[in-house]
Structure formats: structure tokens, C-alpha cells
Amino acid sequence: MFERGVAIVTLTKWGVLTSMNVANALAKTQIKYKLYAPRHLSSDRILPFDGNPRDQFAKLFNDFDAIIAVMAVGIVVRSIAPLIANKRSDPAVVVVDDLGKYAVSLLSGQIRGANRLAKIVSKEIGSIPVVTTATELLGKKAVEEIAEEHHLSIINFESLPLVNSAIVNEHKILVATMGGVACPKIENADTKSISNIDQLKEMMKNYDAGIVISPTILPLEGLSKSVTLLVTKLCAQSPEESSG
């Protein structure tokens, strides 16, 4: 995670001081970064930018895995709103106030790592991490976290809101495995091994949502409930990716 690095962006002299602390925190955990500030605040460690913050966010949004904005939340929201596409491609965005009191996980909290980044920064600079993801607050693992921990790829992202909602609300969840794939422990979920999709369809009549873990991509048409398909990352690659 964060292989393309983290952009730290700030606007004020107070923000520069906090940004340096944030940069030191990332360096300590071996996360590469680049630090940006308006030209009059730049230095050997701080890259300059001209213009307004919205233009700077637009330049950085697709080039880094995460952005840590040391400024007011409102500025960040207004700046990134036109840039947001989806949780698969949007960078993680964390907002830290100028004095470093809070680190807010603002965008792409789980799948892109903003929650994790807010905690890393908070631990090192002494700020309070602000994470509003329901599964995390309740001590439950969202599908995205399960996938990351077990090196699985999410195939049908559109299923996540309903499946994660079922996890949060402690509805009946089925975790079905195929092909001898190991099954992670998921609290309050029933684990079953299946050999075909018809078996899954029959089982799902008794559940509110499901997670299928398989070594291959499966067709999920005709299921009566929301089901997220997780497969090994190698199988999830396209032919071009796996050959390149």
C-alpha cells in the first residue's frame, strides 16, 4: 500500500511545521512522500506550488496513492469534490489541522488506506485519529479489510455497500468457499464449503448477504441476495496483466 507515495500539502507557516512532523512520521514507517507548500513557504524539503489549492489537488490526485492535506477540512472537500470517481481509483485522503490536533480519514478509508494512514500519523505526531467508518468503529471487519488481509481481490465492488451494511447490522452472513480456498474467520458469519453456484443460490435463501471466496472468477447472476466475490489476486488479473 502507498507504493506510489504520499503527497503532503499545506498552505500556512503553521501547517508547514505540522507537515514536517507528518513527513517525519511517514519516513519513520518507510512510506515515501513529497511535501508541497505555496512558493513563499518552500525550502529544500518542501516543493513549491503556485495558484490555488484546488489546482494543486487536481495535479496530485491521480499521481499518488494518498494525500495528506494539512489545512481545514472545508478547503479539502471543496477542492477534491470534482475529482472524486470511485473507491477503487481515488487516493486515500487524510486531513490534518494546522496545529496537528486531529487526523481525519476523509476519503477512501478502507480500500485505499486512509483509516490506516490517519492512525499512523496520529501515533507519531500525537494527534487524535478521526475515523467514521462504521465497521471499524464497531470493531468489525469490512469486506475490503478482509480482502486486503488475505490477499484477495474484490471482483464486484458494487456489492460492497449492502454486504458491509449487513455486517454492521449483524444480519445473517454466509461465507462460502470453493476449490479448497482457506476461509478467514469472520465474526457472526456462517462458513460453508460449496462446489457449484447452484449450491450457493440455494443456501442464500437463508441469509441476508454473502461472501464467496474462490480460486476463480464465478458468474453470480441469479442470486437473490447481495454477494461479494473474492478471488486470489493472480486469478483476478487480466491476461495482459498476468503476462506483463
Give a quick set of tags describing it.
5-stranded mixed β-sheet, Rossmann fold, alpha/beta, Udp-n-acetylmuramoylalanyl-d-glutamate--2,6- Diaminopimelate Ligase, Chain: A, domain 1, disordered C terminus
Layout of secondary structure:
Elements: E1 6-10, H1 13-28, E2 33-38, E3 47-49, H2 53-60, E4 66-70, H3 73-80, E5 92-96, E6 102-107, H4 114-125, E7 128-130, H5 134-137, H6 143-149, E8 152-154, H7 160-168, E9 173-177, E10 189-193, H8 197-203, E11 209-214, E12 226-232, H9 233-236, H10 239-243
Parallel strand pairs: 1-2, 1-4, 2-3, 4-5, 6-7, 9-10, 9-11, 11-12
Antiparallel strand pairs: 5-6, 8-12
Helix pairs in contact: 1-4, 2-3
Structural class of the helices, strands and pairings?
A: alpha/beta
At the third CATH level, what is the topology name of the largest domain?
Rossmann fold
SSE pattern: EHEEHEHEEHEHHEHEEHEEHH
Rg over alpha carbons: 21 Å
* Average pLDDT, all residues: 89
The share of residues in helices is 25-40%
Q: What distance lies between the first and last C-alpha atoms, to the nearest angstrom?
A: 20 Å
- CATH class designation of the largest domain: Alpha Beta
What percentage of the residues does DSSP assign to strands (E)?
15-25%
Which architecture name of the largest domain does CATH use? 3-Layer(aba) Sandwich
Uncertain stretches: 237-244
Principal-axis shape equals elongated
Number of helices: 10
Strand order of the largest sheet: 3-2-1-4-5-6-7
Number of domains: 2
Q: Would you count the extended β strands for me?
A: 12
Could you describe the largest sheet, including whether it forms a barrel? 7 strands, mixed
